[in-house]
């Protein structure tokens, strides 16, 4: 998970640097229309309808693996594997993984509570049979002493 996040951050920083470089080169191209007369620069006459600079930010896309496709289906983002596009955004994958994490944590909470209830029921059954850890340990130690005594007699 950490490597995916670092890959995403690296891709984002790369695109920011690329956009900075692209915007500065666009500025240079716009300023290159200056007329050079005897080494001096003079501004050209600007038209009143100059096209505004448009900013378009593309989100980097990722081709999902087989496992990530299953995650997208389990999270409820898509109904069938055929509906998943060739490339998906990192945000969509992160959202799907977070939904799966939440579902798994809920399942673990339910299993933990069920296990606790089962242990309480088993403990109450053991009390009814007069079994406790102390009595079981004492019986085990007595059995081990008898076995050790038997071995000592045979040797």
Concise summary:
By secondary structure, the protein is mainly alpha-helical.
Walk me through the structure.
With 155 residues, this protein is mostly helical. It folds into two domains: 1-58, no CATH class; 61-155. It is 65% helix and 6% strand. It contains four helices and four strands; from the N terminus they run H-E-E-E-H-E-H-H. The protein has helices at 2-31, 66-74, 90-128, 133-154; strands spanning 35-37, 40-42, 61-62, 88-89. A two-stranded antiparallel ribbon has the order 1-2. Helix 2 packs across helix 3. The radius of gyration is 36 Å and the shape is elongated. The two termini are 62 Å apart. The mean pLDDT is 78. Interacts with HSP90AB1; HSP90AB1 is essential for FAM162A mitochondrial localization and pro-apoptotic activity. Interacts with VDAC2; the interaction is probably involved in inducing mitochondrial permeability transition. Belongs to the UPF0389 family.
N to C succession of SSEs: HEEEHEHH
Q: How large, in whole angstroms, is the Cα Rg?
A: 36 Å
**CA-to-CA gap between the ends?**
62 Å
What is the domain tally? 2
Spatial ordering of strands, largest sheet: 1-2
Shape summary:
elongated
The profile of the biggest β sheet is: 2 strands, antiparallel
Which structural class should the secondary elements be placed in?
Answer: mainly alpha
Mean pLDDT: 78
Unreliably modeled segments = none
How many extended strands? 4
Helix percent band: 55-70%
Number of helices: 4
Beta strand %: 5-15%
Subcellular location: Membrane
Subunit structure: Interacts with HSP90AB1; HSP90AB1 is essential for FAM162A mitochondrial localization and pro-apoptotic activity. Interacts with VDAC2; the interaction is probably involved in inducing mitochondrial permeability transition.
Family: Belongs to the UPF0389 family.
Organism: Ailuropoda melanoleuca
């Amino acid at each position: 998970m950490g490597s995916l996040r670092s890959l995403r951050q690296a891709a984002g920083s790369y695109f920011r640097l690329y956009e900075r470089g692209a915007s500065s080169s666009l500025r240079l191209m716009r300023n290159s229309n200056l007329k050079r007369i005897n080494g001096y620069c003079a501004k050209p006459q600007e038209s009143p309808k100059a096209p505004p600079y448009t900013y378009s930010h593309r989100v980097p896309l990722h081709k999902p693996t087989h496992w990530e496709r299953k995650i997208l289906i389990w999270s409820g983002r898509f109904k069938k594997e055929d509906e998943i596009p060739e490339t998906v955004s990192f945000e969509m994958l992160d959202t799907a993984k977070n939904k799966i994490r939440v579902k798994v944590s809920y399942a673990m909470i339910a299993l933990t509570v069920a296990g606790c209830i089962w242990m309480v029921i088993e403990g109450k059954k053991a009390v009814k049979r007069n079994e406790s850890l102390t009595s079981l340990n004492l019986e085990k130690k007595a059995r081990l002493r008898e076995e050790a005594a038997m071995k000592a007699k045979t040797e």
